């Protein structure tokens, strides 16, 4: 398979005609037909249905077209990055669980780094997808937590996927609640204190195992439970329903406002916030600065 063949497929779909595509590609129609048939044989599928009125995509062809366009888009990005002599664009990507201190570090990276052109990605996402992003080099860094319950499972995944992990800081678990929650005045809460309040957690999709949960102690049964997919919804429900979630205890009023408070949870377990990276990739300068800003965000909250 050649990149040129993928261009051919996309052009045929755009024009709806083998003859017109050949004209725009400046090749003969037989050459184009042969290139497509060679590709179909190599892939073991039929991409187009040919008839006197023109061509249409098969079911396999629709799927193949989607992948072809992704490859061509990535190829264009590579060429822009490395073949253009006038391009000096900074690239950086991080995937993380839903932590305000990660967002703040990302903001600091952007504000304190002298960049005229950049393409940065911050993916607040599910635990399994964080690992997958770093494994497949979609993200340079992943940020998530380990504890006594999930450590063995997740560190085995790290090893299996050639990832290394480094501890950023350790903290005792806290709950986040609305400042108007009946528990808000407490200096310490127990699991028994929480029984009648809705427990809020983040959806983990098809990998909805307790080991992938973003919340420590997720394996403990909860009388009332609500699952959400984003931080804004979770915080709104903390306020609107007097719910709670279990987290690191680190809040940022600039991002979260002053309506949420953090209270230590009386349990023995600890949260270990770590970052992961691929063992075959050294941290870039951007990555190193991002880790520095992360540590700045939490240095007074350990």
Automatic annotation (TrEMBL):
Molecular-function GO terms, alphabetical: DNA binding; DNA-binding transcription factor activity
Domain HTH lysR-type per the UniProt entry, residue ranges: 1-58
Assigned keywords, A-Z: DNA-binding, Transcription, Transcription regulation
Superkingdom classification of source: Bacteria
InterPro entries: LysR_HTH_N, LysR_subst-bd, WH-like_DNA-bd_sf, WH_DNA-bd_sf
Pfam families registered for this protein in UniProt: HTH_1, LysR_substrate
Record-linked SUPFAM superfamilies: Periplasmic binding protein-like II (SSF53850), Winged helix' DNA-binding domain (SSF46785)
Tagged with keyword Transcription regulation: yes
Keyword flag Aminoacyl-tRNA synthetase: no
Entry's Gene Ontology cellular component terms: protein-DNA complex
Family of this protein: Belongs to the LysR transcriptional regulatory family.
Name of the protein described by the UniProt record: LysR family transcriptional regulator
Organism: Streptococcus equinus JB1
